[in-house]
Amino acid sequence: MRIAIVGTGGIAGIHAAAVSALGEPARIVAAVDIDAGRLDTFAARWGVPERYTRVEDLIERSECDVVHLCSPPGLHRDQAVAVLERGWSVMCEKPPALSLREFDEIAAAEARSAGSFGTVSQHRFGARAVALREAIARDDFGPLHLALCNTLWFRPDSYFAVPWRGTWESEGGGPTMGHGIHQMDLMLSLAGPWESVRATAGRKARPTQTEDFSTAVVTLASGATLVIVNSLLSARETSYLRFDFAGGTVELEHLYGYGDDSWRFTPAPGDPDAESRWNTLPPGAPSGHSAQFAAVAEALRSGAPMPVTTAQARPTLELIAAVYASAFTGREVARGELTEGSSFYSSMGGPRAPRLTTEGTA
To answer: PANTHER family this protein is in (predicted)?
Structure first.
């Protein structure tokens, strides 16, 4: 498995380490970055033989199987389409695209390509999440009534000194898009599809074009209610998921990655067997890029599409678009509503986002 990494900033090192953990069958053969000095440092650190400052040169001169996009979000669509048209596969960091339109253009390129497109969704692959997903499918804990999904992080003003951060044009949104997407994706992978959402979003403190917090109340297809909060204003940072099943409460609290000890189960009174069913869930690997890349390698060996597939990733991106659409229009938004006729299909911010004020909500 010949891998190229595009963009050699901080997240690229995590990719390189996870690729190295796969062992001999996987190797990084090329790296791309517009900053030649940063590129040389990365290539020397990881023993990368080919170095390019343009994706076009990589496509023309190299031979790869998978290209990892660790570049800023505003570049993902064009880079992914170019690589897929070359016939190679793409593993893309979140968010995979700036809008539903861009994501659908990637999916269309994938349909024409010999390669496949995967989105980095590393939290889906922790052992406890995999086991819980199977337990939910077996109905081990009964129906889900209520769920919480909080991404309460802190980013100072200086974080947004990087030019592409905090703008609709290059980052696609604020914490709803760039930060909360991780926990929202894990939540949907466990709790099932969503049906409608009512949301608010605003900018209270950070020097951005985008929101710095959002809230949403989501109706899931199962009938359960999901409450979401995304924030960059929270001094005590946490990533928190909670599932209130008929048979008990499952909680996950971590920050950027979880292990088995990040989970907690509280059995419901009157269900004496619930705790034993929880205790039978097998322990295993923590969440992270290594866990997902192992699944990617197995998929490529078998000829299957890379996880997380475009079909699996799109519902999360659609929910994010619907959160923005609801927040900026003040109405409930249903799944499937944001089609090509909607301005929120082409831009997460839609036409009203620039009217956000520093102290108000949309």
So the answer is: D-GLUCOSIDE 3-DEHYDROGENASE, UDP-N-ACETYL-2-AMINO-2-DEOXY-D-GLUCURONATE OXIDASE
